[in-house]
Amino acid sequence: MFDEAPSLDSGSGSGQAHDPDAARPGGGGPKPAVTFALSVRRLEKSFGSRKVLDGVSLDVAAGEVVGLLGPNGAGKTVCFYGIMGINRLDGGQILLGGEDVTALPMDGRGKRGLGYLPQEASIFRGMSVEENIRAVLELRLRDNDAIDRRLDELLGDFGITRLRALPAPALSGGERRRCEIARAMAADPKVILLDEPFAGIDPMSIADIKAMVRQLKQRGVGILITDHNVHEMLELVDRLCHPCRQAPLRRRAASCPSRSRRAAALSG
């Protein structure tokens, strides 16, 4: 059901993967190495005597959805915080598009294309839907017409045009999540981390969020996602990684006939 992920040149820390068939006779010569949207190398993090991250490595390509698996306490959110620069890591390397951003703060990583949707509500409660998104656009764009055009695009893309004037506290859980994703995309990320995107929302809204994730994938955005709703997450991901196992798991879509069998394989 699972096969190994492509071999990684983890020793170089370059954020590149090498095709094992590149030097095969008749293959047309060596192929260029792939530069990933996000590469994580040997992350280490301890809290006191407890080691939470122990050499975690993973890659996310442009237009790829990678699922991060593990039970409560496995270090998934700690891994996200380390990638974003929210928590200081004890060791490891973060690369965006092949560029080492390990030493950069959170805003520096954001400017280089790293986006984040936290598990907890992050909407600005004192603002309307439109104001939430406009606040991010104004940090990136200077032309008012360009800001207005992009604002209208984001409101339309995420189905919240009719909500634009509503104050944030008036939104339902699903509406709030859509607004938060639209606001995250206002920063024009190349890769985005989604921490529990299905938490606290109804089944219809979950279907909407899944459609939005697929839309981001089609636009070439790399996505790293974790969620306790494993069934829903499995319908989205191209690959699976377990931070405690350190070795990524690659899913063959054609060999996964049912969600129940996939979930059983993960729990085993």
UniProtKB/TrEMBL annotation:
The keyword Transport applies. It comes from the Bacteria. Pfam families: ABC_tran. Residues 1-31 are annotated as: Disordered. One of its GO terms (molecular function) is ATP binding. One of its GO terms (biological process) is transmembrane transport. Transmembrane segments: none annotated. Keywords: ATP-binding, Nucleotide-binding, Transport. InterPro entries: AAA+_ATPase (IPR003593), ABC_AA/LPS_Transport (IPR051120), ABC_transporter-like_ATP-bd (IPR003439), LPS_export_LptB (IPR030921), P-loop_NTPase (IPR027417). PROSITE patterns: ABC_TRANSPORTER_2. GO terms for cellular component: ATP-binding cassette (ABC) transporter complex. SMART domains: AAA (SM00382). Residues 38-266 form the ABC transporter domain. This is ABC transporter domain-containing protein. It comes from Sphingomonas sanxanigenens DSM 19645 = NX02.
